[in-house]
Design brief:
Blueprint: H1 2-6, E1 13-18, E2 21-26, H2 28-38
Antiparallel strand pairs: 1-2
């Protein structure tokens, strides 16, 4: 069920059963590899800036 809900992020998350609950941790190497594959997003805007 966890893999189904987490989808492509399942390998970035470590889920361990501990007692009556679960411990959830981020796998740092997996997260940094995932983020590096996302690329960069640059937004350019010309004009008046208004909130």
């Amino acid at each position: 069920m966890f893999e189904e809900e987490a989808g492509s992020l399942a390998n970035c998350i470590l889920l361990k059963k501990e007692g009556n609950g679960f411990v959830v941790e981020a796998r740092k190497n997996a997260v940094s590899q995932y983020v590096s594959r996302l690329g960069k997003y640059i937004l350019l805007y010309k004009g008046a800036l208004d909130w």
